[in-house]
Specification:
The protein is an alpha+beta fold and 1115 residues long. Helix content is 48%, strand content 13%. The chain has 40 helices and 26 strands. α7 (114-133) packs antiparallel against α8 (140-175), α7 runs antiparallel to α12 (328-346) and α11 runs parallel beside α32 (836-876). It is elongated. It starts with 20 loop residues before the first helix and ends with a helix. Its main location: membrane. Keywords: ATP-binding, Calcium, Calcium transport, Ion transport, Magnesium, Membrane, Metal-binding, Nucleotide-binding, Translocase, Transmembrane, Transmembrane helix, Transport. It is found in: Endomembrane system.
């Protein structure tokens, strides 16, 4: 690996222009000068042309000359007053949006649907024949069909347009991240789109590169450039060979600062993105519904064909009086239009539409609940999660770290948060402690807001939060706050860190914290180091620090420190018990190193356990002096050598107890999850005692539950782990690899399937003898152990190394506040507030989506069965179909688009969390749903067949427009009232529950009722309807309203959910659900009932005809 510290000393010139903000703005606004700057920046930022870029950059000079061109500074960044001018003339960092389809394009695309095309052809033919036969009114039917098609297309295009708008809003929210820049010599956290050319951008491991730039300083920085190059290898960055960083890449190791040279559409990623258009993949539920829609469509086509054949047989062989005036061709056209309309009604295009509407509605609402959905499938999958593996810090706890107690230089300090005086140890010991806290950290402080001065003394000041904001690791922030408090003598930790000159040529080295190592190390070099304290006559540590700062400032940056008798000190920070293992000495109150014997080690271990049992995070600080005597290549040394040679024989400086209180709503949220059948596990890097204390307080670790360490976990065989999984509730001191293996074992995600894949995971191991002994196992063994169906696992993660576990999970949940960009990109949902209760809301919304789709499915299957059957029965009975093409299209609109809007946007209810999650292979239609569909369809068919054969009740002619209008009205209002029934899919009858929270449902019902009234009363020849009397309105609406009490009585029929469809806590082994057989039965049963009823009526009519025939013979 090439060194990032062997850079030219000239690489870090001051870059100070000395110009005033007004002069800088004037030069930026100068078109010729701006053009020259942009032309030069383009010459050093050509795509896939590293060598040419480097030559052009070096030809111009160095980083100092570049910063001068950009009116920036390599230490202080830009003057914030020039930011707006830079944004105006050199570009904004907003990425170009992919071109979106306008409404007209979406409208035209709706006519790609084959059924609509057939209807249009049929309408045109009908129009031509109608005008030819009857020029006065013959156009009505054809125009009515075309108008209905137009309405369907407009509504579909509107839905598509709204859906795309919502997805773009969510995408914008997904891309909204904050970055750290240096302006005016201060660190600022700003939205990514506010970066301008010349900004000094600060990045660390896990951060995205927000724009193109040239590195100013760096420390072990590696980038993942696969997004641009396609090569999955880590790229080392250095001054000599490759100082360029490109947007769209991610920092995977180290840290650095760079000058922004291209932003937004001018950056490499912006150029690529402008040619991209993201397409939303279908979710598993959408695919499953597409399959079901296809099956129902085939049944509809069969019914359409049978209807066409029946109508043609009646015309050709029976030729009743009402058909004698029509030609065979005209009747065939009518039969064809009815058949096509049946197909339109039967094909439930509303099923995928309902999923789309429900997902779009839910994802927008979930964003308000602090859940940002990155992949739509996660929304529905989360609803049936059976396991949640949660981090502790920031998720279960508040991530509001405060140092409350500790042992510093072998001196105990209690209640540090309320200390009124500085630490009672020697200046030498204090200096070592404060130097370690300041340097062994990467956290930064953003300046607090300062209220604007009022124009008049009497004017009220606005409420402004003047507390400083910390960026970075909260544990580090807690210790830096302690150092800067009265307890630490109001230490200037920023000066200490600046003096260390991290990332500077020949400066100090930094090996950042890693969740795998659970520690971090810095190697600090300065002309005056810890050794100077021995000859400082016990000056205050601040005086020493200032002397060092003075020495550092007088030394020319162009002069190497090498050969000047460098003093190097290692400062180390990490998990207390792990650090203690590598210590052989401890620091006493006088600042001297004492040997760490067995008794002293035992006393420190006792403190660690004491803090852990009190639910405190215990962090250890250590140092090692004169490390230049151990290694002479400290400017080039890499982490493996640091671990082997330097992180040993250290001196323990302090044990720090940090409190992170449990979030107020965590206990309730965990209890809700457990009641909902979800197994909650805590996977944390903290030690076992702390993890157990927090888990018990949160209610995660219950009686009979198991807590173990990562070290114990890794020693288990797959079979042994399977035995412990039902009770494993806490995994402490775990590495990201442990979390990954736990997830793999639970759901089989990314499990090795072949010998080659297993050997990739376990190099130099024997596959034949060890495959059943090493975690995570292999696919064949895993599937055999649990019937091939694993758990549905949600996993939280915030670190770069959590990426594999987040990918392996069914739903990866990254932390919006503390998560790295790598973790966010690997996740499916971003928890914006890092709060466990937000995860519970994700489960609730996921179950709501699933149940809303089932509600709509229950409603649509009922309408399908009834509409197809009544049309077919009317045809075989010798009637004109009671529901003509326009009526059927209106029913289709009610059933598909209106139904999807009404039932797909139902808000969630907490009752959803009182049942266990469904298995992966559970049927979409449950047993209670089949009951509801059968009962409602049977009632509606019986009502419509009765009305079809009893026109005399309304004193109207059999088969007349008046007769069919009555049937049509009763049918539509049966659907209106059944829509209330469909709001519940179980045994609970409460059709008006939470109606005030369902405005879309009420709007759809209101629209349907008003539109139905207008169609009946004013449709006339256009819809082939006739105005009804008030009595007829009351009767038809009343017949439809009977669907509501039917909804009550049908729920009294004892039908329970199949226990095998449930998973999670209390679940049972499942079995394959023969859903296709139930679909067939549900459709055929009411159809057969109606056919039997129809046959009985036909037999009665034949008897009457025969009786009249006998009487005529007698006469």
């Amino acid at each position: 690996m090439s060194s990032n510290h062997s850079m030219n000393s000239s690489f870090h010139g001051p870059g100070v222009t000395g110009d005033s903000p007004a002069e800088i703005i004037q030069e930026i606004e100068d078109k010729d000068k701006s053009h020259d700057v942009m032309h030069f920046l383009e010459s050093i930022n050509q795509s896939q042309a590293l060598q040419a870029n480097l030559e052009n950059f070096q030809k111009d000079g160095d980083i100092a000359s570049l910063s001068k061109r950009l009116h920036s500074d390599c230490d202080k960044g830009i003057d914030s007053k020039t930011a707006e001018a830079r944004r105006t003339h050199w570009g904004t960092n907003a990425m170009p949006a992919s071109p979106r389809k306008d409404f007209w394009t979406l409208f035209v695309e709706t006519f790609d649907d084959a059924t609509l095309q057939i209807l249009i052809v049929a309408a045109v033919v009908s129009l031509a024949i109608g005008i030819y036969d009857d020029p006065a009114t013959g156009y009505v039917e054809g125009m009515a069909i075309l108008a209905a098609v137009l309405i369907v297309s407009v509504v579909t295009a509107m839905n598509d347009y709204q859906k795309e708008s919502q997805f773009r809003q969510l995408s914008d929210a997904n891309d909204a991240i904050d970055v750290v820049v240096v302006r005016d010599g201060l660190h600022w956290q700003i939205p990514i789109e506010q970066i301008v050319v010349g900004d000094l951008v600060v990045v660390e491991a896990g951060d995205p590169i927000p724009c193109d730039g040239v590195l100013v300083r760096m420390d072990g920085i590696q980038l993942d450039e696969s997004a641009l190059t396609g090569e999955p290898i880590e790229v080392d960055k250095n001054a000599e060979n490759d100082p360029f960083v490109l947007s769209g890449c991610t920092v995977i190791a180290g840290s650095g600062q760079f000058l922004a040279i291209a932003v937004g559409k001018h950056s490499q990623w912006g150029i690529i993105q402008s040619h991209l258009e993201k397409e939303q993949d279908q979710t598993p539920l959408q695919e499953k519904l597409d399959d079901m829609a296809a099956q129902i469509g085939y049944i509809g086509m069969g019914a359409a064909a049978m209807t066409f054949v029946a109508m043609m047989i009646i015309k050709i062989w029976v030729n009743p009086a009402y058909l004698q005036h029509k030609s065979v061709f005209t009747h065939a056209l009518d039969a064809f239009i009815i058949g096509v309309t049946i197909v339109v009604v039967a094909v439930p295009e509303g099923l995928p539409l309902a999923v789309t509407i429900s997902l779009a509605f839910s994802t927008k609402k979930m964003l308000a609940d602090q859940n940002l959905i990155r992949h739509l499938a996660a929304c529905e999958t989360m609803g049936n999660a059976t396991n949640i593996c949660s981090d502790k810090t920031g998720t279960l706890t508040e991530n509001r770290m405060t140092v409350v107690k500790g042992v510093f230089a072998d001196t105990r300090h209690e209640d540090i948060a309320h200390a009124t005086r500085s630490i009672k140890i020697s200046d030498k010991a204090q200096h070592i402690l404060l130097e370690g806290i300041a340097c062994c950290s990467t956290a930064k402080m953003v300046p607090p807001q300062v209220p604007e001065p009022s124009a008049s003394p009497s004017e009220e000041h606005p409420m402004v939060d003047t507390r400083p904001v910390w960026i970075g690791n909260k544990t580090e922030a807690a210790m830096l706050s302690m150092a800067a408090s009265v307890w630490g003598g109001n230490d200037d930790w920023e000066m200490r860190r600046a003096n260390a000159e991290f990332g500077m040529p020949d400066g100090s080295r930094l090996f950042p914290f890693s969740s795998a190592r659970k520690r971090m190390t810095v190697l600090v070099t300065n002309p005056a180091a810890v050794d100077d304290i021995d000859h400082a006559d016990m000056d205050s540590s601040m005086s020493i620090m200032r002397r060092r700062a003075s020495a550092g400032s007088t030394m020319s940056r162009t002069t190497s420190k090498r050969g000047m008798g460098e003093h190097w000190t290692l400062y180390h920070k990490g998990a207390a018990e792990l650090v203690l293992e590598n210590c052989t000495h401890y620091l006493d109150a006088d600042g001297n190193e004492q040997e760490l014997d067995a008794d002293k080690r035992h006393s420190f271990e006792k403190v660690i356990r004491e803090y852990a049992r009190g639910a405190l995070r215990c962090v250890a600080l250590a140092h090692r002096s004169r490390i230049q005597e151990i290694c002479n290549n400290l400017h080039e040394i890499q982490l493996p050598e640091v671990e082997e040679k330097l992180e040993t024989n250290m001196c323990l400086d302090a044990l720090v107890g940090i409190a992170d209180p449990l979030r107020a709503d965590v206990i309730e949220a965990v209890a809700i999850c457990q009641k909902a059948g979800i197994f909650v596990r805590m996977v944390t890097g903290d030690n076992l005692e702390t993890a157990i204390a927090i888990a018990k307080e949160a209610g995660i670790l219950t009686k009979g539950g198991l807590a173990m360490t990562g070290e114990e976990f890794r020693k288990l065989t797959p079979a042994q782990l399977d035995e412990k999984l039902p009770i494993l509730q806490v995994l402490a001191r775990s590495s990201p690899e442990d979390k990954h293996m736990l997830v793999q074992r639970l759901n089989g995600g990314l499990m090795p399937e072949t010998k080659e894949q297993w050997l990739e995971v376990h190099p130099k191991k024997d596959y034949e003898t060890q495959r059943d002994l090493l975690l995570p196992g292999y696919k064949e063994e895993w599937a055999a152990s649990r019937g091939g169906v694993g758990e549905v696992v949600g996993v939280t993660g915030d670190g770069t190394n959590d990426g594999p576990a987040l990918k392996a999970a069914d739903v990866g949940l990254s932390m919006g506040l503390s998560g790295t960009d790598v973790a966010k990109k690997a996740s499916d949902i971003i928890i914006m507030d890092d709060n466990f209760s937000s995860i519970v809301k994700a489960v609730l919304w996921g179950r709501s989506v699933f149940d809303n789709i089932r509600k709509f499915l229950q409603f649509q299957l009922t309408v399908n069965v009834v509409a197809l059957t009544i049309t077919f029965l009317a045809a075989v009975s010798g009637y004109n179909p009671p529901l003509n093409a326009v009526m059927m299209l209106w029913v289709n609109l009610i059933m598909d688009t209106m139904g999807a809007l009404a039932l797909g946007t139902e808000p969630p209810v907490m009752d959803l969390l009182e049942r266990r999650p469904y298995r992966r292979d559970a049927s979409l239609v449950s047993r209670p749903m089949w009951r509801n569909i059968l009962v409602q369809a049977t009632y509606q068919l019986a009502m419509l067949v009765f009305l079809l054969h009893r026109p005399d009740l309304f004193d109207c002619e059999d088969g007349s427009t008046h007769h069919f209008t009555i049937i049509f009205n009763a049918f539509v209002f049966a659907q209106v009232f059944n829509e209330f029934n469909a709001r519940e899919i179980g045994d609970k009858f409460d059709p008006t529950r939470s109606l005030s929270k369902s405005p879309m449902f009420l709007l759809v019902i209101l629209f349907t009722v008003i539109a139905q009234y207008l169609i009946v009363e004013y449709g006339g020849d256009f819809t082939q309807t006739q105005p009804l009397t008030w009595e007829e309105w009351k009767i038809t609406v009343g017949l439809g309203a009977i669907s509501l009490p039917m909804g009550f009585f049908m729920r009294l029929i004892p039908v329970d959910e199949d226990p095998a469809t449930f998973a999670g806590i209390g679940g049972v082994d499942g079995k394959k659900d023969n859903s296709w057989l139930r679909v067939l039965i549900s459709i055929l049963f009411p159809v057969l009932c109606a056919i039997v009823y129809q046959l009985l009526l036909e037999v009665e009519e034949l008897k009457e005809d025969y009786s009249r025939y006998e009487q005529s013979l007698k006469k």
